[in-house]
Amino acid sequence: MPEEPISTVPATSERREPTASEVDGARSHPVVLEARGLVKHYRQRQARQRGHRRAAAVVHAAEDVDLELRAGRVAALVGESGSGKSTVARLLAHLVRPTSGEIILDGRPAVRMGSREYRRMVQMVFQDPFSSLNPVHSVAYHLERPLKIHHRATKSEMPDAVARLLARVQLGPASQYVGKLPHELSGGQRQRVAIARALAAGPRVLLADEPISMLDVSIRLGILNLLAELRDEEGLAILYVTHDIASARYFADTMTVMYAGRMVETGPSRAVADESAHPYTQLLLRAAPDPDRAQPVHLGATGGPPSLVHPPAGCRFHPRCPAAMDRCRREVPPFFQVAPGHAAACWLHAAEGVAVSVSPTATGRPDPSPA
Ligand SMILES: Nc1ncnc2c1ncn2[C@@H]1O[C@H](COP(=O)(O)OP(=O)(O)O)[C@@H](O)[C@H]1O
Ligand code: SF4
Ligand SMILES: [Mg+2]
Question: For residues 306 and 11, which has the higher predicted lDDT (pLDDT)?
Answer without folding.
Answer: 306
